[in-house]
Amino acid sequence: MKSKIIMVVEDELIVAEDLTHWLAGLGYGVGARAANGQEAVQRCEATRPDLVLMDILLPGDMDGIQAAEVIRNRFDIPVVYITASSDESTLARAKVTQPFGYILKPFDERSLYSTIEMALYKHESEKRLRESEERFRLLFEHAPVAFHALDADGHVVQVNRAWQELFGYTQEEIAGRWLGELLGPGSVDRFIANFTQFKRTPVTDSVTVDVVCKDGTLMTATFKGSIAVDERGRFAMTQCVLETRSRPGILSGGLPDAPALDLGNDAILLLTPDGMITGANRAAEALLGWHAEELRSMNLRELTVATVDAGEVIARVLSADIVDRRVASVRTKQGGSLEVVMTGVALHGRAAKVEGACLILQRR
Q: Domains of the chain, with CATH numbers?
């Protein structure tokens, strides 16, 4: 394993030499040293170390706190402060820059090592979290199936692009509005009753309501989803996916008696955390040949052939909240197989526990 490169920013030569010696003894490399803030920023840009040990009190126009703020914002490099000062105003300034740790002078090898390792671990964890959130955002935004999220009172928090295209509203027009305002006659009471029950259970049954689109038409839409909770286990928001929709009718003329249509050509499967299928849309039935009732008695492992590890797909949802785009072979009822592009997103329940997943299959 490649050793981490540490940059030492210290204006006292003896302290800098001691740090360099100790770091080498602990298995780290020292790629650069600096004695003031400006020099630290310049050498960070040139060498991109894994971590910076930064003395708070440095000579010149840029002290350690100012340099640390520039380094974190510009290069996303974690900074650990070295200080002999316990002055409250100085520490208050330092906290604003969100350091990854403090080492108090005089220090020892044990505290030096533990602080550096914790800082590196914390930074890597934050980086993975940001990357996961960005992947989730992109999947949410560009998924071919409509998603929406509501707060604890039923106000719209977020809708994705497919939802906007389907119902005609933009995110700016819909954010913060109570969903009941968009529902047709007879659907408001049903929404209130189901939403009240929804907040008490991890995963909701399918709920069908009439949505008034922006152009004045009515669309019957069936949603299924789960709830997300905060760190205290309290309701935070819903996460709902559109299962089916019916042909839109004119609001003044009522809804036509039309069968439910699939949303595009993308097959949607709803799964439990162990891979059991709990729901399927019309496109999934058409793609795989089984009726939804038949699919609901199956596990994802039964649908995939040996070229894809269904267990790994399920584990990916549990650990990272999403399934990255991947090519997979799935079985059909007729006994054949076909290649699909598989993506997915986790559905959370109480205590932020994954209670299910939405898997999207697109014919390759």
A: 5-127 (3.40.50.2300), 145-261 (3.30.450.20), 265-364 (3.30.450.20)
